[in-house]
Every structure is written in structure tokens, then in C-alpha cells.
Amino acid sequence: MTAITATPVDELDEIAATLRQTDFPNQLGIEVTGQCNLHCTMCHHDTLRRPSGRMSPALFRKCADEVAATAPRTAVWFSFNGEALLAPDRLLDMVAYGKSVGLASLNLNTN
After folding, report:
1. Mean pLDDT of 99-103
2. How confident is the model at residue 1 (pLDDT cuts 50, 70, 90)?
3. In angstroms, what is the C-alpha Rg of the chain?
4. Is 51 exposed, middle or buried (CB count within 10 Å of its CB: 0-12, 13-18, 19+)?
5. 76 forms bridges with which residues in the sheet?
6. Which of 50, 57, 64, 79 could form a disulfide with 109 if both were Cys (CB 3.0 to 4.6 A apart)?
7. Strand, helix or coil at 17?
8. Is this structure's pTM higher than 0.85?
9. Distance (Å, whole) CA 85 – CA 82
């Protein structure tokens, strides 16, 4: 029995067929804090040369309000270059606010 395998071009064509243009991103990454407590070998965090602060509540509210008004099913991910659980009070406030304005998909990616 001979297995038929797809070529890389065929695989890319299959993926391309599933893509569609959207008016608004279907996912949004929120960096609660730029701080991280790990030093993973595959991560570029140690080489970042920008300030490592926390997202202001006002900026998050502005983002959440826009997403809720435009596409409330957008998946909001509390992760980016930092570890969101290093700012637990800020994270919980963000989740509560997001829920209160009608965001349907609030997600956490943590180390």
C-alpha cells in the first residue's frame, strides 16, 4: 500500500482556501505587563530594549470598548511578551471590565 502525501504547495493551497478577509481582527493580544519571571531559551524577552511596564486601565478600557462595540466575539488574549499573572489585580480588573462590556472570549496564556 502506497501512501499519498501532499506536497508543501498543496498544503499551502489547502490553508489558503480556509482564509478569509475580515473587517476586524478575530484575535487581540493584550500585554497586561511586560515583566516575565522566566528566562526561556526560545524567548526573545531578555533582548527587548523597551520599557517593561503595565498597561494602564484607561488604555485597556478603550481597547475593550472598541472591541465590544465592533466585534464582541473577538478572542482577547491576556498575554504577549510578559506574564499576566505577575499583575494579578490588574488582570482580574481587566477580565471583569471585559466581561461587563460584553466581550465573549477572554483568554489567558501563562507560563
Report:
1. 98
2. low
3. 18
4. exposed
5. 28, 106
6. 79
7. helix
8. no
9. 9
- Letter for the amino acid at 17? A
Cα–Cα distance between 29 and 56 in angstroms, integer? 15
Determine the average pLDDT of the residues in 26-45.
86
User: Which residue is listed with cell 493580544?
Assistant: 29
What is the spatial distance between Cα 18 and Cα 11, in angstroms, rounded to a whole number?
11
Mean pLDDT, range 9-17, rounded to an integer: 88
| Strand positions, DSSP E, 3-53 | 27-30
Q: CB neighbours (10 Å) of residue 76?
A: 23
Distance, CA of 102 to CA of 70 (rounded, Å)? 11
d(CA 4, CA 72): 42
